[in-house]
Amino acid sequence: MLEFGENTLEEIAKNASRSFAEKSRALGAIRGTRYERRDFPIGIGESHDGEFDYKLRQGISEVTRGFYWMTLKSGSYQAVRDDFLKNKKPDIAYSKLNAFGDNKALYVGRSSNLLGRIKQHIIGGPKATYAMHMSTWAYDLEGLVQIHAAAYPDAEDDVLQALEDALWDELTPLFGKRGPR
User: Fold this and answer.
1) Is residue 37 part of a domain?
2) Number of domains observed in the structure of the chain
3) Own/partner pairs for 29-33, CB < 8 Å, 24+ apart?
4) Which of 138, 143, 132 has the alpha carbon at shortest distance from 176?
5) Which of 2, 4, 129, 161: CA 20 to 30 A from 170?
């Protein structure tokens, strides 16, 4: 399993396409990015919404616009996939389940409201919003989800998309899709 830290984004930029490297330099270099990371139990459930919100705001308090990714700190990607297929609800718009293989992440995404979007994945949100909605199917799983967020408050959408795509290619997440919305 990959270990992530503040230098992870810089390493990905070095290995990414020239246009990605140029765009990240235009942001003032990746090193200047605000980076946050928090761990949460997988099966957090709707009953822990307030506790989750409090802890998430402690770790990602000022991060508003940028991109994020979620990995398993402990637990099994196979178990996550199996529980999703077994427990998903037919009336909820879930993120696309990708082929199982060398997945190093659960999800990679970007948003202009990182806190709200991350909550949609973990706690859930409107049923028609594509997200992991983990509280609706991951209630029996054990393990820790690690949430990473990198702030780019002034970045243009195409720059954030390039950063997200490069990270998506590197991590091959279990859920979601590559490319623009």
Assistant:
1) yes
2) 1
3) 31/6, 33/6, 33/9, 33/66, 33/150, 33/151, 33/152
4) 132
5) 129
Q: Which tokens hold the place of 58? A: 């402690």
* Domain residue limits at 84: 6-171
Indicate whether 1 belongs to any domain: no
Ordered per-residue pLDDT tens for the chain, 181 residues: 334 455 555 555 555 555 555 555 555 444 445 666 666 666 655 545 555 566 666 656 555 778 888 888 888 889 899 999 999 999 999 999 998 877 778 999 988 888 888 888 888 889 999 999 988 898 878 888 888 888 777 777 777 788 888 888 888 899 999 988 7
* 109, part of any domain: yes
